[in-house]
Amino acid sequence: MLSAKLSPTVTDMIRFDHSHVLLTFHQYTLDKSPKVRKALADTICNALEIHATLEEEIFYPAIRLLNGEEPVIQKSVPEHDEMRSIIAELRMTDPKEVRHQELVMELMRDVIHHVADEETVLLAEAERMMDKSRLRELGTQMTKRRMQLVAPKAGRIAADTIVGFSGSTVAMVAGVATAICAVRHFTKAKHAAHVH
Ligand SMILES: [Fe+2]
Ligand SMILES: [Fe+2]
Q: What's the domain range around 147?
């Protein structure tokens, strides 16, 4: 089921996560109800936390082996920590307050900047210096770890996605796909202990 030969590469997985979170940010507009904006913010917070952990545990160590002096890798974890502090405040903020929108915009600005550095420097470097089988092997590791991280929150992630993307026709397709993915991850995670 998780054969490294069939796994997407780690770099494609990272790109997919980036696209998903940016798509979610783009749904956050003031014409949405506070309930929908809260669900979107929760979707963003959970997705970023899981993504940051996966990069720190699997992708960044592999990049450091190639070139630990790279300035982008050196600032990556501090930037994740800055996002984590915005996430912590965002979770405690009422979506009816102006501060909620300010925090989402602050987080989006940080994420766009961080993602630009990762995609144009780290992913490019990884694909230049690692062969496809290594990139797929890291992709497999990332999938296994993602299942463990998603499992405890799978129901919540699916529910937030459905509320957050309600009323959005184009994004709903991606949103529903994500919800289905989360449920699948949850189901698969029950068997994760048997996956080696
Ligand atoms: Fe990152
Ligand atoms: Fe990333």
A: 10-194
Residue 5 in domain: no
| CATH code of residue 28 | 1.20.120
Measure 14 CA to ligand 2 centroid, in angstroms: 6
Q: Mind listing the pLDDT tens digit of every residue in the chain (196 residues)? A: 556 678 899 999 999 999 999 999 999 999 999 999 999 999 999 999 999 999 999 999 999 999 888 899 999 999 999 999 999 999 999 999 999 999 999 999 999 999 999 999 999 999 999 999 999 999 999 999 999 999 999 999 999 988 998 877 655 556 556 665 655 555 554 555 444 4
Which residue is associated with the tokens 């915005």?
86
CA 118–ligand 2 middle distance (angstroms): 6
CA 21 to ligand 2 centroid distance, Å: 10
The dihedral over CA atoms of 113, 61, 43, 19, expressed in degrees to the nearest 10, equals: 50
Residue 67 alpha carbon to ligand 2 centre in Å: 18
Residue 8 token pair: 């997407």
